[in-house]
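The protein record quoted for completeness.
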Amino acid sequence: MRKFRKKNQPTKNRHSQVNSSFREVNARVYQQNNKINNRKRNRVASLREKIPRQVLPDNTPARVRHWIIVCSLFILFIVTIYIVIVSPNANIVIVQPSGFNYQGLSMSQYKHAVDKALNASIYNRFKPTLSTYDVTASLNKSLPDVGYVTVTVPLIGSTPTVYIQLAQPILMYQDAVNSYIIDSNGDIVADKSALSPTDISKLPVVSSSSNGNYSVGQQILSSDNVKFIHILQLAFKAKNITVSKYVIVPGTEQLNVYLANESYYIKFDLHQSDALQQVGTYLAAITTLRQQGIVPSQYINVMVSGRAFYK
């Protein structure tokens, strides 16, 4: 019986031809890639031969890295200490009050007070724990002629700067013995010799017959009394009225104001806080008296609120 071959059935020869063609293609691709890789290897090898190589012992790299870390930490520690620490020797800047130039304490006295304030606590030796409030309070207490104190510390650096603003003179107080410069708090900031005659002429003179043997730093007037007199001075100046002197009657709240080129004085009450009202009462009274042709021979009393008496 005769066998017949099915249609479209590939023969063994056909399979072998296809496989051989694939093998030839793969061989060619492999050879091409191999040539490219060999060229790259040769190029890298030639570059390596051109660069000299330093041969170190096996244990040297670890030792070098160790010393680099140690040195870096040491430098970081020194920089941190330099940034954080505060030097006990501060720069001192004296700022004169506006419109005046007086010699208070000596620079050595200021330096001694600043050094003492900075060294009062170990915490003041470091920037994060430095108490500028305590330093300022200490200087305000120990220096009688100080008005304001500002302490600044640089971000890079350890030397602080202390700005000392001298107290603003408000008036000159004269007792039976001496003359003193008074600030807004009523404290004695210096004696008369600290100011030049030109600066003394700028201040209103308040006198008293009492002899208290006062010293620098002592309070002889209340801040309210100083404010009252200062307001009177400004009010009279605005009206072009020149005051020759202010006299405080000992043991009372009476303030006698003497005007230049006038035969009388004015009685004010320091206990009353409204100085402008008393000035207004005086101006209204003197205007009425002048219209009537009356000139007081001794005084005009405006101590009673809203009323004036004369003699």
